[in-house]
Design brief:
The chain contains 13 helices and eight strands. The chain has helices spanning about 1-10, 15-20, 25-30, 40-50, 65-85, 110-125, 140-155, 170-175, 200-215, 230-240, 260-265, 285-290, 295-305, and strands spanning about 55-60, 95, 130-135, 160-165, 180-185, 220-225, 250-255, 270-280. It has an eight-stranded parallel β-barrel, surrounded by seven helices.
């Protein structure tokens, strides 16, 4: 399986330098990451929202090593929120954040990440939107869920992400499927050991369906993070059986992947949110996109060969 190999490469400084230096890389990266600055992505935000889509914005760059970098990440999100306020798009665009980018892995990282993310959540609420806490590798999740619980005391609309490939997630889903919660379910995109995670695709898919059923039958707001046509169809059927209206759940997909499906679901009346990342430190995000789906890797390899 190439996925684990690619995920290991995402942590390799040597591979980072090699791939970043390849002349074709930026052209391919642009498929998934439409810009490096807020100014770069504003036209994309306007285009997608005008087409009936909603967005969640991610400023990439979780591999920080100093408190100053964590503060800079906080400020980057605050700048984004200011621009969304100017565009009057607060109700159509939310933020996704990785707590590692806010200092979670540093000394006293839990408290530092909470202190950095709170102003972002406050600013988002002030313009009528919210923040979703992305899930990272399994060692960070207890801290993430604790911060999520703390933020929801003042900002109950704060969302979180759970990953179907982890054994713990079915129990997490039962706990989170409560009134007012917002939960995005994804398969998972980190290299996890067999002691904590399913390793085979069919096992992950089965877990995804079980967990999604729990969310749909609960009292919260499920967010279906998948490009898999079969899982999308199952999600629609589970929502119907649970008696959910179209505005009581949503689909989420990555920018640059199955864009025609984004528009199809929106045209059918579904809430369809596009996960749109931008920033200069794109390497880790890009490599996870390659690992998630063989077609993404083939696209990259073909581009390297034809343009290199």
């Amino acid at each position: 399986m190439l996925g684990p190999v690619i995920l290991a490469a995402s942590r390799s400084d040597r591979m980072r330098r090699l791939i970043s230096a390849a002349p074709v890389t930026k052209q391919v990266v642009d498929r998934f990451i439409p810009g490096e600055t807020v100014d770069d992505v504003v036209p994309i935000v306007e285009e997608l929202t005008a087409g009936g889509l909603e967005l969640t914005m991610d400023v990439v760059g979780e591999d920080i090593t100093t408190p100053e970098q964590a503060a800079a990440a906080r400020d980057a999100y605050l700048t984004l929120i200011d621009r969304l306020a100017e565009l009057e798009l607060g109700e159509r665009v939310e933020m996704s954040v990785k707590l590692s980018m806010f200092g979670q892995a540093l000394e006293a990282g839990h408290e530092l990440a909470l202190a950095n993310v709170r102003p972002v959540v406050e600013a988002a609420a002030a313009i009528g939107t919210t923040v979703t806490l992305d899930a990272e590798d399994h060692t960070t999740l207890d801290s993430m869920f604790a911060i999520h619980e703390e933020l929801r005391k003042d900002f109950p609309q704060t969302g979180c992400v759970i990953q179907a490939y982890l054994f713990r997630t079915e129990a997490d889903a039962r706990r989170l499927a409560a009134s007012g919660s917002r939960v995005r379910l994804v398969k998972g995109a980190y290299k996890e050991p067999a002691e904590v995670a399913y390793q085979q695709k069919h096992e992950i898919d089965k877990a995804y369906v079980r967990i999604l059923r729990t969310l749909m039958e609960g009292e919260g707001y499920p967010m279906i993070g998948s490009h898999d046509p079969r899982l999308i169809s199952i999600g629609q059927e589970l929502a119907r059986k649970a008696g959910r209206k179209l505005d009581e759940y949503e689909f989420q997909m990555l920018y640059g992947i199955r864009s025609d499906e984004h528009l199809r679901l929106a045209a059918e009346g579904h809430r369809m949110r596009v996960y749109t990342a931008y920033g200069t430190d794109w390497y880790g995000y890009f490599m996870r996109r390659l690992a998630e789906k063989p077609a993404n890797l083939r696209f990259f390899a073909r581009s390297m060969l034809t343009r290199g």
